[in-house]
Amino acid sequence: MNILLLGSGGREHALAWKIAGSKKINNLFIAPGNGGTSNCGSNLPVNPEDFDAVKKISLEHNITLLVVGPEAPLVMGIHDFFLNDPQVKHINVIGPTQAGARLEGSKDFAKQFMQRHSIPTAHYKIFTKESINEAFRFFNELAPPYVLKADGLAAGKGVLIINDLQEAKANLSEMFEGKFGEAGLKVVLEQYLKGIEISVFIITDGIHYKILPEAKDYKRIGEGDTGPNTGGMGAISPVPFADKNFMEKVEQRIIVPTVKGLLEDGIPYKGFIFFGLMNVDGYPYVIEYNVRMGDPESESVIPRIKSDIVDFFEGVANQTLNEKELEIDKRTVATVILASKGYPGDYQKRKVIENLCMVDDSLIFHAGTKLEGDTIISNGGRVLAVSSFGSNINEAINKSNKNAGIINFEGKYFRKDIGFDLNI
Ligand code: AMP
Ligand code: GLY
User: Fold this and answer.
1) What is the model's pLDDT at position 74?
2) Does the beta carbon of 276 lie inside 6 Å of ligand 1?
3) The pairing of beta strand 65-68 with beta strand 92-94
4) Which of 90, 123, 200, 318 has its CA 20 to 30 A from that of 391?
5) Helix (H) or strand (E) holding 264
């Protein structure tokens, strides 16, 4: 089978690495890929949001399976584009159609979906500029901190959590004035949920599903979960508090009604679902849906999957996922992200990365890197992910931290406390 994988981050390198290890793969192409994915297949310089260009390379390379890493092409309808084009409609796509991608692309849609299917989530209401006075009144029904969410995709920046009521109101007005562009013209105001977050993933063919290993992501730039939000500075899988009892609740209260709900609403869904959950006193609530794998969670989760992932993709395409056996490595994986100084603000690129070959007891997934001649240089805010196995969190994180120390580039920054809150 010839596979085309879209995307260029650490998640895509982890997926490419896993796909390249499959018995069923002939050729793997990654568009556009990064300095690491070129070790797993051939990088092609194509933008995943340029559907015509994706179609062209798919035909050129006899692709039979398209795996979509990031959300943007899904929300823009790449799956629908393939389904509706006679020349490429034979190509199976891993990732939902536009209707399913609204779970991530519109908070309004996601909230209404959860309400319709009785899926636990924070109490909320949706407002536009026209209903701003109602919104101001709704604040009185909520207790601080106030949670304001732009309806559309806002590059991970569309959620504001604000303690002060006046400040919250001012921010709401700014959102309606275009602070987050189109994405913020509709705003979800919701109850603040106090608890600990966890990322749960499934792969589904629209009827059946398999629960993949869960993970905990560390979003803040600073140690002790301080400072601005990032795309994620590290991850741990498995998560100790996600015991059998908790995961049973996740499955019965969230996963089952979500998959059933999509079916009932007439939305065929083939791909990953990422449930961003809050554990509130032992009960899971959905904070957000994503229609893709997480990053950096993938760099912890994917190495723990022992089964052939391409076999699973075939199961998704043929709606025979129930026939597949998912085998999981019981060990812990700890992932540490090496970022560029200044991230998530302005940062420099084009720094030479050294000592990669001195690491032999961790997996290194590239995120923002580029190959120039024989040299790997930095090309993003999150540069590399170092993932290590251990028999417990301590062992795994110590290995990742040691190797994060060995790899070098100018302005390297990493958090040394990933997993700090998980009783180690
Ligand atoms: P989202 O983009 O929806 O994942 O939101 C970004 C982050 O905001 C989440 O990862 C949570 O840490 C936080 N967050 C979102 N909604 C809530 C909520 N209702 N209560 C508490 N924290 C929240
Ligand atoms: N790590 C969070 C995300 O992928 O959205």
Assistant:
1) 98
2) yes
3) parallel
4) 200
5) helix 256-264
Q: What is residue 142's three-state secondary structure?
A: coil
Q: Cα Rg for the chain, rounded, in angstroms?
A: 21
Q: Which residues of the chain are modeled with pLDDT < 50?
A: none
Q: What is the C-alpha to C-alpha distance for residues 80 and 219, in angstroms, rounded to an integer?
A: 32
Cα(157) to centroid of ligand 1, in Å? 11
Do residues 304 and 331 touch, judged by C-beta distance below 8 A? yes
Phi-psi region of 227 (alpha: psi -120 to 50; beta: other; left: phi over 0): left
Residue identifier of the C-alpha nearest atom 2 of ligand 2: 294
DSSP letters for 278-347: EEETTEEEEEEEESS--TTHHHHHGGGB-S-HHHHHHHHHHT-GGG----B--SEEEEEEEEETTTTSS-
At 156 the pLDDT is 66
**Domain extents for the chain?**
2-97, 124-190
How far, in Å, CA of 19 to CA of 316, rounded?
15
Residue 24 and residue 310: Cα distance in Å, rounded? 7
Contact 165, 143 (CB under 8 A): no
How much is the pLDDT for 424?
Answer: 56
Measured from the Cα of 232, ligand 2's closest atom is: 1
**Ligand 1 centroid vs 287 CA: distance in angstroms?**
6
- Counting ligands in written order, the one closest to the CA of 148 is 1
CATH fold for domain 124-190: Dna Ligase; domain 1 (3.30.1490)
Placement of tokens 């995961």 in the chain: 247
Structure tokens at 192: 């603040």
> Looking at the domain covering 2-97, what would its CATH class be?
alpha beta
Q: Rounded to whole angstroms, what are the CA distances from 376 to 108, 140, 393, 413? A: 42, 53, 30, 17
Residue in this structure with the two tokens 């006679």, named with its chain if needed: 86
- Residue 58 to residue 154: CA distance in whole angstroms: 29
- pTM value surpassing 0.85: yes
Closest residue CA from atom 5 of ligand 2: 294
